[in-house]
Amino acid sequence: MGVDVAGDLLAIDGGAPLVTGLPERGLIGAEERAAVLGVLDRAIAAGGAIEYGGPEEEAYCAEFAATLGGGYADAVNSGTAALYVALRALGVEPFTEVVVPAITDPGGIMPVPLLGCIPVVADTAPGSFNCGAEQVEAVMGPLTGAVVVAHIAGEPAPIESIARLAERRGVPLIEDCAQAHGARIGGAPAGSSGTVSCFSTMWGKHHSTGGQGGVVFTRDPDRYRAIRGAADRGKPFGDTQPAGRNYLASLNFNQDELSAAIGRAQLAKLPAAVERRRAFVRALAARLAGVPSVQVPETLDGAEPSWWFLRLRYRAAGGWDKERFCAAVAAEGVPVNPTYAALPATYTWFRERRVFGARGGFPWTAAEYRGDPDRAFPCPNAHAAVAEHLVLPVRESWGEAEAERIAAAFARVDGAARRAAGA
Ligand SMILES: Cc1ncc(COP(=O)(O)O)c(C=O)c1O
């Protein structure tokens, strides 16, 4: 199987861990330091302040838009804010339904009820963490005001067929690319098919703007103006329109110059980082081919994932359940998680319909909502996919050597589980 499984005693049973000292991501370096100091030095020299909406943000947004083949980007202060801004800028009406993915981060759905809209959950395609067009269409109806689709783990969803569906039904499509910076499908970058696309640039993502951040992207200049307004309390570009400055009620989601400067340095590193993530996953997949208990999933035709994490399908090794197997692999020094349980329909606030006030209910129970406030979203495919997979974070600092060592840890645990079952 191409891996050397040294020693029989598992680390979880008191043996020496097989994998020590896996490199950290090394995300921040001299370039980001210089970028931040540059902003500070310029502010000091000018006797001014660190601002928002300045030259760093302008350059970052132009450079970001260029990575998506041109258009307009607005830097905001989180991925959650990006989705809020997108929905607000699209003018999605309260008490309409917004289709959301069955597997996504809370931030990828929470703005929907906060804007008085009703989240309606589309199941994933069978065996996948992502929705397909069929699952999205199954929950659409006359009340649908928008569709949000995420590319979970950096694996592209079938966005072209979903975009065609949204267009046919006359509703805007929001592409949530929080986990998919640099991913491509059919040759096009993730984020280039939606009416509006959202990114998170918090510290854990492929490229970051420091600790927190996000980006909203569109190709349409009028929509861009609405995005700027929704991100800046309804007064984009310091606007002083004669009809009244504050033409749109919204919140302040501006990103500051320090963050944008970090984002520019990070963006320059993104293509190489994504390539390294892909090379690591290729190397790992080749080695895991000899480990029967874990299987690297097939991705869609034409998909070039950017691998925020790697889901691995678990086939019981011996009689071990996934939790036991993962605990043993983690003890060997590989940071696996037994599950990615990001299922919005199971979140407490969603189940209890409790967003505003202690009693909750709104917006589901509002008289203006003409749908079923108690509609259930069983999402069997999503639950099965979460149950079947374990999750390995991917770091751009990992290469062939780490793939070799990580695969060896999986092989060691797999072998021990099988021997235990045979004993
Ligand atoms: C798919 C998805 N959407 C939205 C978000 C929210 O982004 P943020 O944490 O920057 O608010 C995340 C964060 O991980 C995410 O993974």
Write structural notes for this entry.
51% of the residues are buried. The mean pLDDT is 95. 36% of the residues lie in helices and 13% in strands. Helix 1 runs antiparallel to helix 8, helix 3 (79-89) crosses helix 7 (221-231) and helix 8 (257-288) crosses helix 12 (400-422). It has a domain at 30-267: Aspartate Aminotransferase, domain 2 (3-Layer(aba) Sandwich), CATH 3.40.640. The protein has helices at residues 30-46, 55-67, 79-89, 111-114, 133-139, 159-169, 221-231, 257-288, 322-331, 348-351, 380-388, 400-422; strands at 72-76, 97-101, 118-122, 144-150, 173-176, 184-185, 188-189, 196-200, 214-218, 294-295, 303-304, 309-314, 389-393. Pyridoxal-5'-phosphate binds at residues 78-80, 104-105, 107-108, 150, 176, 178-179, 200, 202, 214.
Descriptive tags:
423 residues, Aspartate Aminotransferase, domain 2, 7-stranded mixed beta sheet, 12 helices, 13 strands, 36% helix, binds pyridoxal-5'-phosphate
Instruction: Give a list of the ligands.
Output: pyridoxal-5'-phosphate
Tell me the name of the CATH homologous superfamily of the domain at 30-267: Type I PLP-dependent aspartate aminotransferase-like (Major domain)
Estimate the helix proportion, in percent. Answer: 25-40%
Please state the overall shape, judged from the principal axes of the Cα atoms: globular
The name of the CATH topology of the domain at 30-267 is Aspartate Aminotransferase, domain 2
For the termini, the CA-CA separation is 22 Å
Mean pLDDT: 95
Give a quick account of the main beta sheet: strands, pairing sense, barrel closure. 7 strands, mixed
